[in-house]
């Protein structure tokens, strides 16, 4: 029996990862660290810590690993994606202020084919103007918009289901 088949029978994928070892990153752009304090009419009063706690519970339920990253600096987001590109199965991305200008982030995701779901806590289309434009929209496998803190849970469920279906 070849090594790859033997490895899969033992519950591992080539490269040593477990078959059920799905890793999803939750990546937030600028000012998302202020959730719960900023513009509560759009984003609600739930803090990022509360969102993260809910996502950790959901990740445990879904039996996936979840990584969290937020930066106000585009290059740091790119560095994070590149540092994890070989072990990420998908991304839940809130590009925030980089929705219209984050071409380097988009390139980091699309050049290596990491599937992502784009999320926005506010209804970017209702807000209009530059908020309603996203360079990430076309390449995303899905979108969750306007449901405040719930966008992250729905995004995590969506990307994990997508990855599972691609693996089978």
The assembly state of the depicted protein chains is: single chain
The beta-strand count equals: 5
Discrete helix count:
7
Average pLDDT rating: 87
What structural category do the secondary elements indicate?
alpha/beta
Strand portion: 15-25%
Description:
This protein is an alpha/beta fold and 168 residues long. It has seven helices and five strands. Strands 2-1-3-4-5 form a five-stranded parallel β-sheet, with helices on one face. Helix 6 (124-127) links the parallel strand 4 (116-120) and strand 5. The longest helix has 18 residues, at 150-167.
List the helices and strands and how they pair.
Elements: H1 3-9, E1 22-28, H2 40-43, H3 48-62, E2 64-70, H4 74-84, E3 90-94, H5 103-110, E4 116-120, H6 124-127, E5 142-145, H7 150-167
Parallel strand pairs: 1-2, 1-3, 3-4, 4-5
Helix pairs in contact: 3-7, 4-5
Which features would summarize this protein structure in a list?
alpha/beta, five-stranded parallel beta sheet, 7 helices
Put the structure in a nutshell.
The protein has 168 residues and is an alpha/beta fold. The protein has seven helices and five strands, in the order H-E-H-H-E-H-E-H-E-H-E-H.
